[in-house]
Design goal:
This protein is mostly helical. The chain contains 5 helices and no strands. The protein has one domain: Four Helix Bundle (Hemerythrin (Met), subunit A). It is elongated, with a radius of gyration of 14 Å. Keywords: Phosphoprotein.
């Protein structure tokens, strides 16, 4: 996902929002997901798969509901890894989530 290919107008229309309403909800997604991301990273450091799974599940659901499919899919990968107790190899996925949240945030600011 790049800033240029985020079409807030179409995404809003798909959900029955006007663009400004959608952007407000997307900003809330960023705020909540950053907290979830902190919890996810803490869960990895503490070797707590349940904490990782719960945080990833939250990001997955919120992103998916708004139509941010790539972000949702990445969070789902982390969630599935945590369900399998495999949380040691998630660095690249965590970085992808960070990058995608930053991309959405930048698009909201422009």
């Amino acid at each position: 996902m790049t800033e240029e290919n985020i079409d807030f107008s179409t995404m809003a229309s798909n959900l029955g929002f006007d663009e400004d309403e959608f952007k407000e909800v997307a900003q809330l997604l960023i705020t909540v997901s950053l907290t979830d991301l902190e919890n996810l990273e803490q869960g990895i450091k503490e070797n707590d798969p349940d904490k990782v799974k719960d945080a990833a599940h939250s990001i997955k659901g919120a992103a998916g509901n708004l139509g941010f499919t790539e972000l949702s899919n990445c969070a789902e990968t982390i969630e599935n890894s945590a369900r399998s107790q495999q949380i040691n190899e998630l660095t690249s996925h965590v970085m992808t989530i960070k990058t995608q949240l930053q991309t959405i945030s930048s698009a909201l600011s422009s």
